[in-house]
Amino acid sequence: MDVRRESEATPMKNLTRVERKSERELVVTRTVNAPARLVFEAWTKAELFRRWWVPKSYGLTLLSCEMDVRVGGSIVWCFATKIRRWSSSARTSK
After folding, report:
1. Angle at 63 between CA 82 and CA 90, to 5 degrees
2. Euclidean distance between CA atoms 86 and 80, whole angstroms
3. If phi over 0 gives left and psi between -120 and 50 gives alpha, with beta otherwise, what is residue 13?
């Protein structure tokens, strides 16, 4: 029998689903084995977001990240590779 304490993580697969809702809306859903509070902070605090958003294997660097995740706020990212630099932005909604 596998007995775990409540504070121990339960092993699970990180499942990711991507769904295009419209021409301008993409929904990415990922299940992670972490408390909701920590996942929310990782997605909404720029200093944490910078640490995990771009996998090193992509060859990208996230140069800057500005996030106002309130409804009607905005998110601005600036990326770079060895040969190119660009920005991406989005407006947050419900």
Report:
1. 115
2. 6
3. beta
Q: What is the pLDDT of residues 65-91, one digit of tens each?
A: 888 888 888 888 888 888 887 777 777
Arithmetic mean of pLDDT over the chain: 79
d(CA 12, CA 28): 18
Domain ranges of the chain: 15-91
Burial of 44 (0-12, 13-18, 19+ CB in 10 A): middle
Structure token digits, residue 1: 């029998």
- Residue 41: its pLDDT value, please? 93
- CA-CA distance, 42 to 47, in Å (whole number)? 8
Q: Tokens 């060895």 correspond to what residue?
A: 82
**In the CATH scheme, what architecture does the domain 15-91 have?**
2-Layer Sandwich (3.30)
CB 38 within 8 A of CB 48: no
Its pTM surpasses 0.70:
no
